[in-house]
Design brief:
Elements: H1 4-18, H2 28-40, H3 51-60, E1 64-70, E2 72-73, E3 88-89, H4 93-101, E4 106-114, E5 119-127, E6 132-138, E7 142-146, H5 148-168, E8 177-182
Antiparallel strand pairs: 1-8, 2-3, 4-5, 4-8, 5-6, 6-7
């Protein structure tokens, strides 16, 4: 759980970065890493060039409390392994995030790997008795408030699009989404 001021500082950074012109805007992993450095108040923190490397570093620093991997199913309802086209998440990323938080209230931060690290996203959750607000933050859209349907649809549509684009190039990628809960 994090202070609401840090939460708002991260949102401000993501939104400002997303408005920069192409070439000045940070790429997804650099954006995620910068947000994490803001969160922990350590702009010299050494993080990775891929989301799994960043999250492994945070595990070493005892800054990850939980991890969840969510696979994709193909059109036959079987888990994809990169060989078959993904069709649907095997379970809701939104619900898994809320399950990871449990009954706790406050501001929470998650790292989200889409398509086995192809895209890095930061998830911010503000949970109270009155509301559950979840924001999907990246370099392109800043922080976008999402409900369950929107978050899962975004992950699904991007995974299918990117998997098909890579398959046309001759590369069939794993499609899993991985969630890390920061502490």
């Amino acid at each position: 759980m994090f202070a609401s001021e840090l939460f708002e500082e991260m949102k401000k950074f993501f939104n400002e970065n997303s408005k920069l012109p192409k070439g000045k805007k940070m790429v997804c992993i650099v954006t995620l890493n910068h947000g994490i450095k803001l969160l922990y108040g350590d702009m010299k923190m050494k993080l990775g060039s891929q989301i799994d490397h960043t999250m492994n570093k945070l595990v070493e620093l005892n800054k990850i409390s939980k991890t969840e991997v969510i696979e994709f199913n193909d059109k036959n309802g079987k888990i994809t392994t990169g060989v078959t086209e993904p069709e649907a998440l095997s379970k809701s990323v939104y619900i898994e995030i809320m399950n990871m938080i449990g009954e706790n209230m406050g501001c929470f931060v998650f790292g989200l790997s889409i398509m086995d690290g192809y895209h890095s996203v930061t998830i911010l959750v503000d949970k109270s008795v009155e509301k559950n607000e979840i924001f999907r933050c990246d370099q392109n859209e800043g922080c976008f408030k999402s409900n369950e349907k929107e978050l899962d649809a975004y992950i699904t549509s991007k995974t299918i699009k990117w998997w098909n684009n890579k398959a046309k190039e001759g590369t069939k990628m794993k499609t899993r989404a991985t969630i890390w809960m920061l502490q």
